[in-house]
Design brief:
7-stranded antiparallel β-sheet; 7-stranded parallel β-sheet; 27 strands; 46% helix; 54 helices; single chain; Rossmann fold; DNA helicase; P-loop_NTPase; alpha/beta
């Protein structure tokens, strides 16, 4: 069995390593004592310097040799701070102006700025007011004395800083001071006064000693065991949550009357106030003994005098214990000798009223938290403290106008890689954050759990260092600073860091300075130009591809992507349009707004414009422009039809009477009627028998000689004379024929024509109704001529005069009976005329040719238009669409280059740090000279370097780490940093950060006010009921700075979160900012990242009589069993149990302890380690992170509806505790409650309880949808409404693009299960029941570390496929790094195959894309046949 290990996770909880010293005799430090003495002598010598160049500041721990060593016995004193000479200050200011560095100053900030009127009030008294000390000796920071006493009083009052509000909150936060008021009766302690001498001596010699060896008396040992449990828990709490080493062996106590009690009356007169203070403090560790119920004690560090006692005695009575050498008697060889110190104390404090020294040795918890802020300037005209003071004054009666961002960060795609220094991957938000930080912006950064805020903070630090700036990481929790150290070490940057809390030995510090200088001098600039060119080139190609997809034609307002989407939509229809017509640009311009054209086409289609029968209709193409003309045309045709029938009858009857065969067409009738008319004329001139025989000889005789000669007729004169006479005999008497020859010709022609139609040999004659026939024919001819004019442009027009009579009649009948087409003809023809005018002649012809129905013409028009638009846009130089294969290759090249770019970050930081160091050396020659002198001399303590050459230290080691409580004591006012990064800002009081903020002009605070708050604590536990911390409000750095500074939010959650939970947090806390994806196994199995257990079955309880309200036994036992189940099945995953109350947490912990006795095989899981098993109430879970969390509500059903029964969830911070409980786990959260959801909803819902009830309701609703077959991966949009929450897969797909919809259809057809997720993290999720192939994916961290065989075997190789289309607006909004590398890598690391859907490929060959996805799912590709 292996221990939980989460080295790759954020925010580790390291609590196992309690022995941090390696010396076998840790308190034997003669070198340190000598250094202290040496520093004291140096201080005395400095005191004799010229007053004009120096001033004295009384401060805590300001001895030059011991300024960073609070554990040293020489940690107090008076030091002379040397002021810079005029020439030095002038030189430094000039250099700082050139470098934009703040001049090294001591005391008041003097930057010019507008004066601010301020009024004094009791709470917000000026900084440094000695009256702000409380009864425990806590006080605000003391102001430096003003060098120029002649400064105008009114101006000074305007510039005066009023920070007392937050300084007072520091005292509230840290609780009572046990260093001055240790009460052996009330404070939990292990009393060693009556210990076994041999065991006590063994402890004082520095060896591990069992508590049972020291306390032989059974009663004292039992009390000691109980106290050891309490002290060890408190030591762990203070260490983990506040970075305090609080476990000490206190040798001797001193008690005396205070000079003044809180009322101001001397205690000698009233005798009310006494200080009780431990004298000598030695750090001690308390570890459980592995053999049983016992503890091992060991002193693991040098002893020191109680610093609070020393300050108080010096302050009240002027007694300097260090000057009198009290601390020098603390050790004798390798042995702690407290008795010598007590004797020295008695001698030094003989004149102190009521002083009583008692030889009593105890072990308890102590921490020096008084004067933690240190010195602050009393006035300022600008800077962060000035703004805070203004905020404090203004917000009492009006809103404060917070800062706005002044920089304009470049979009991530435009950031030059040569100007970007990152040590971790940075999404678009982090890129903006780093750019704003490098521009000097101060801000707050809301960083919810799981957003990898530490990586973002380190990226910010890397960017600032690359600008030549120094950075201070400020974190109260030791674990946070340990994580910063660990990550800096992993990056190879630990040699650029200065840990202000480690208190390095002078020799070690000297060696580090020298080694770092040598390293800087040897620094070589990384050769990255080729890499940067590769990033620029590949990024540009990927950007151009997306720009091409979204390039918008300004004339038509469309993009190539829209064209492909629309064409995909059109061609995916059941009856897809198929026109091959393409429009020219002119036609495209005229039809941008196609609504009118579509309406015209559809109306024309309704009017049968494209119907085959219409083309064949008798009136098709007729020129009739209105309804009146159609009526007239119909009347004309009907009249023609009747007249034609009459004419046909008349001709038949008349021609039969004369033996003439009628022709079958009107044209034939016309010829016959013309013949009859000619015969009638001839008979009017000749006698009827002229037609009896041919008259050819008569024609020749009457013709001219020329006529005869031309025709070869030879006739004599006699013969001609005879024949002429004969011809004249045929002439009707009294008729004169001027041209007899021509008249005879006509007769002959008429005779011949008659013979062609004659049916017998009857003599030529005329019918009796010839005149009637003529009139009828004229009417028909005239009417048909009119119809011919109407039908002149019609493609179906006919020569009505040549039609056979039956056909003519049939045509006329069809025209007479075609009412519908004739009535709609004017509108139809007008529409077609308009459409032809728009250039749609070719499309109309195509529609007519293919007989397209009215409901399809719009699609045909759209297809022609969009296909034409797409082809025309492809010819534009702005459009450069690339096939997917090429894009994949370019994207792969970009990924490799970008990974190498990030990997080069640490090397670039080192080189930039070297450049920054060289720059500071050239700009600060005096400090450089002094720093060089110090390094060539004997090793010095850190404080001396910071006093004499602060800019050199900041340039050499630009990354500093400190707790807020250490800045004021460690850093002199002359030491400044360019930026302060506050971590865990939501739980850190602003007052604790004031010392850091006074030493910088830029602050970046990371935290989450929704999940944490400053929780006051007590250093020393008390007997009986634990003394609760103060309930006075303490404002966090995040809260106050958020009112003053602009902010950003880290929105990408990299841990596994239930989508219902993310949806709830977005809706009620984070304004929709959070985004995440579940782990891959959740898409292919029933595994979820959150489960709820309702323990509603009646169970016997452990009480008799009154019902249990808090911590029901059944829930305690159920949770304990869950813990053991986890330890057996998932031993590689860390676990914590969180509760809403301390009693419930204690009962669960006891149940686990008792249950472990019968399960020795699981004991290894519960041993101390990197992330040990913990049972905590929510109030003590700040900073806790575990792989899995069980949250147990601990309220029985009998509790009723009172909100007070819900413990910490129902108090004023209940909402923050709800968020904390739900987001502590990386992999899985399990909610356990003895209340049903209905019972919980019926309770008095306040703060966090209301959130819990609401969330569980939405969670159950999402599970109901999942059980009904709806997608469980997606957060519900309308979980609160039964009507709106009805799931419709088709509706979701209609929201998606049509290219994706067509692809989904193909995938489903091959057996894949696909959920379309428009607007979400990915565009679709595809799964299958077959064994999957990996396309770069690995199983998730949860699956990798899970010990559950079912999890590994059933889902390890079932990898879902996440589909991301490059055509969505969301995709285009992401940077190339985010969309092409970070998102795919995130998905692949958490059990997803990721496939980029290139729009060009999905458009041109969707089946190939589908086949590739099917291959990843383990499904057979579809048969293309």
């Amino acid at each position: 069995m292996t221990k939980p290990h989460s080295a790759d996770q954020n925010d580790q909880d390291n609590s196992g390593a309690e022995d941090r010293r390696t010396s076998s005799v840790p308190w034997a430090s003669p070198q340190g004592s000598e250094a202290a003495d040496k520093g004291r002598e140096s201080s005395d010598q400095d005191a004799s310097r010229t007053p004009s160049q120096e001033f004295q500041v009384e401060q805590v721990g300001d001895d030059a040799s011991e300024v960073t060593r609070p554990e040293s016995v020489a940690s107090l004193g008076v030091v002379t701070v040397t002021a810079a000479t005029d020439s030095e200050a002038s030189e430094e200011e000039a250099a700082a102006e050139a470098d934009h560095l703040e001049p090294s100053t001591s005391g008041t900030e003097t930057t010019d700025g507008p004066p601010v009127e301020e009024e004094s009030d009791g709470e917000d008294s000026p900084v440094g007011d000695p009256g702000t000390r409380d009864e425990h000796g806590h006080s605000g920071a003391k102001a430096n004395p003003t060098p120029d006493a002649s400064t105008d009083d009114a101006s000074a009052d305007r510039d005066e800083l009023r920070l007392g509000r937050w300084l007072k909150q520091v005292d509230v936060y840290t609780g009572p001071d046990a260093l001055l008021d240790f009460n052996p009766v009330d404070n939990v302690h292990i009393d060693l006064s009556n210990s076994n001498p041999s065991g006590y001596a063994q402890l004082l010699s520095g060896r591990r000693t069992r508590l049972s060896t020291i306390l032989r008396d059974r009663a004292e040992f039992s009390n000691g065991i109980r106290s050891a449990h309490a002290i060890r828990g408190k030591v762990f709490e203070l260490d983990a949550d506040h970075g305090l080493d609080a476990g000490f062996l206190a040798a001797g106590t001193a008690s005396w009357f205070a000079t003044k009690n809180p009322s101001g009356t001397p205690d000698g007169a009233r005798g009310e106030r006494r200080h009780i203070a431990p004298i000598l403090l030695a750090p001690v560790t308390i570890n459980p003994h592995p053999d049983g119920d016992d503890f091992e004690l060991r002193i693991n560090g040098p002893a020191r005098l109680n610093p609070a006692m020393a300050r108080q005695l010096r302050r009240e009575f002027g007694i300097d214990l260090f000057e009198q050498g009290v601390h020098r008697t603390a050790t004798s060889g390798s042995r702690l000798t407290p008795d010598a110190v007590l004797e020295a104390m008695r001698s030094a404090c003989m004149k102190v009223p009521g002083m009583h020294i008692e030889s009593r040795t105890v072990i308890s918890t102590f921490a020096d938290l008084a004067d933690t802020v240190g010195e602050l300037p009393s006035t300022a005209t600008s800077g962060l403290l000035r703004e805070l003071s203004d905020l404090n004054r203004i917000r009492l009666d009006e809103s404060y106008e917070k800062r706005e961002f002044t920089s304009s960060p470049a979009p991530a795609n435009q950031v030059d890689p040569a100007e970007e220094t990152l040590v971790y991957d940075a999404d678009d938000t982090v890129s903006e954050l780093v750019q704003r930080a490098r521009a000097g912006e101060s801000m707050t950064v809301t960083s919810p759990a799981g957003t990898q805020h530490l990586r973002a903070a380190l990226n910010v630090a890397a960017g600032l260092v690359s600008e030549g700036k120094s950075v201070l990481f400020l974190a109260e929790r030791r674990e946070t600073l340990q994580n910063v150290r660990r990550r800096l070490s992993e990056l190879g940057l630990s040699d650029l860091t200065l840990d202000l809390g480690e208190d390095p030995e002078p020799e070690e510090l000297h060696r580090k300075f020298v080694e770092t200088i040598v390293s800087h001098e040897r620094a070589v600039e990384p050769r990255l130009s080729g890499l940067h060119d590769e990033i620029r080139s590949t990024r540009r190609q990927l950007i151009e591809h997306i720009d091409s997809l979204h390039w918008r034609d300004e004339r038509w307002g469309v993009t190539p992507l829209q064209a492909m989407q629309t064409l995909a939509e059109l061609t995916s229809q059941d009856e897809a349009p198929s026109t091959r017509v393409r429009f020219k640009r002119g036609v495209m311009d005229a039809t941008v707004d196609r609504a009118e054209t579509v309406a015209q086409l559809e109306r024309a289609a309704e009017l049968r414009a494209f119907n085959p029968s219409t083309r064949k209709a008798p009136w098709f193409g007729a020129t009739l422009v209105n309804t009146e003309e159609t009526k007239q045309a119909r009347a004309l045709v009907r009249s023609l039809l009747e007249t034609t029938r009459t004419l046909r009858k008349e001709i038949t009857e008349g021609f039969e009477s004369i033996g003439l065969r009628p022709e079958r067409t009107l044209a034939g009738w016309k010829k016959q009627l013309d013949l009859l008319e000619g015969i009638r004329v001839s008979l009017s001139r000749f006698k009827g028998d002229i037609f009896d025989r041919p008259v050819t000889d008569l024609i020749a005789a009457t013709g001219t000689s020329t006529w005869r000669r031309e025709r070869g007729i030879d006739m004599s004169a006699i013969q001609r004379s005879r024949l002429r006479r004969a011809a004249k005999e045929y002439i009707v008497p009294q008729v004169h024929i001027s041209d007899l020859h021509q008249a005879l010709i006509e007769v002959q022609a008429q005779r011949e024509q008659w013979q062609t139609w004659a049916v017998d040999e009857r003599t030529v004659s005329l019918p009796g109704n010839l005149e009637t026939i003529g009139r009828s024919y004229a009417q028909v001819a005239d009417g048909l001529s009119d119809v011919s004019i109407v039908m002149e442009e019609s493609p179906v027009r006919k020569d009505y005069f040549t039609l056979l009579l039956p056909d003519l009649v049939e045509t006329l009948e069809a025209m007479a009976n075609d009412r519908i087409l004739l009535d709609t003809l004017p509108e139809r023809e007008q529409l077609l005329h308009i459409l032809r005018g728009k250039g749609l002649e070719e499309l109309l012809s195509d529609l007519e040719e293919r007989h397209v129905a009215s409901d399809r013409v719009a699609a045909e028009l759209d297809l022609a238009w969009w296909q034409s638009a797409f082809e025309i846009m492809l010819e534009r130089p702005e459009v450069n669409l690339v096939r997917g294969k090429t894009l994949t290759e370019v994207e792969s090249s970009f990924r490799r280059a970008d990974v190498a770019h990030i990997a080069s970050g640490p090397a670039r930081v080192r080189y930039d740090a070297a450049r920054g160091w060289n720059r500071r050396v050239s700009l600060k020659p005096l400090q450089a000279k002094e720093f060089r002198r110090m390094l060539k001399g004997a090793p010095c303590a850190l404080g001396e370097y910071l006093d004499q050459a602060p800019d050199m230290v900041a340039g050499l080691l630009p990354v500093w780490l400190s707790s807020p409580f250490g800045v004021g004591r460690t850093l002199p006012q002359s030491a400044h940093v360019d930026a302060v990064i506050v971590l865990d800002a939501e739980s850190t009081p602003l007052g604790a950060c004031l010392a850091a903020l006074s030493r910088t002009r830029q602050v970046i605070a990371f935290g989450d006010d929704h999940a944490g708050y400053p929780q006051p604590f007590i250093v020393s536990p008390t007997t009986g009921n634990e003394q609760p911390p103060s309930e006075e409000p303490v404002e966090s750095a995040m809260q106050v700075l958020g009112e003053m500074l602009p902010g950003l939010t880290l929105d990408r959650v990299h841990e596994c979160r239930d989508q219902s939970l993310v949806s709830y947090l977005n809706n009620h806390f984070y304004g929709g900012a959070l985004s995440t994806m579940p782990y891959g196994e959740e898409a292919v199995s029933r595994i979820r990242s959150l489960d709820v257990d309702y323990l509603t079955r009646k169970q016997p309880d452990d009480r008799v009589g009154a019902p249990v309200i808090e911590s029901p036994k059944a829930e305690v036992l159920a949770v304990a069993e869950m813990v053991f189940e986890h330890a057996a099945q998932n031993p590689r995953q860390s676990l914590a149990v969180l509760t809403a109350g301390t009693r419930h947490a204690a009962r669960i912990a006891e149940a686990v302890r008792r249950g472990l006795e019968s399960r020795p095989d699981l004991r290894e899981f519960f041993e101390p380690g990197q992330e040990p098993f913990r049972v905590l109430d929510l109030a003590r879970s700040q900073g806790l992170r575990r792989d899995r969390v069980i949250f147990s509500l601990g309220v029985a059903a009998e509790a009723g509806s009172r909100s007070s029964h819900f413990g910490q969830l129902a108090d004023q911070h209940g909402r923050q505790r709800f968020v904390k409980a739900m987001t502590t786990a990386r992999f899985h959260t399990r909610v356990v409650t003895s209340l049903s959801l209905e019972q919980l909803q019926a309770a008095d819902l306040t703060t966090g309880v209301k959130d819990l009830a609401r969330f569980l309701a939405s969670f159950e609703a999402s599970r109901d949808r999942e059980n009904s077959g709806q997608a469980a991966i997606l957060p519900p949009e309308h979980a609160g409404s039964e009507f709106l929450s009805v799931y419709d897969a088709a509706e979701d797909e209609r929201k998606a693009d049509w290219l994706l919809a067509d692809l989904v259809r193909r995938l489903r057809g091959a057996g894949a299960e696909v959920s379309v997720t428009p607007g979400k993290e990915v565009d679709a999720v595809a799964t299958a029941h077959a064994e999957s192939m990996s396309a770069g994916a690995v199983i998730s961290p949860r699956a990798r570390t899970s010990g559950d065989p079912e999890t590994r075997d059933s889902s390890a190789m079932r990898l879902p496929v996440a589909l991301s289309s490059d055509g969505t607006e969301a995709y285009a909004a992401l940077s190339v790094r985010e969309r092409s590398r970070l998102k795919p890598e995130r998905l692949e690391r958490t059990g997803w195959n990721h496939v980029s859907l290139w729009a060009v490929d999905v458009f041109t060959d969707p089946q190939s894309v589908a086949d590739r996805i099917l291959g990843y799912l383990g499904l057979e590709p579809q048969d293309r046949g």
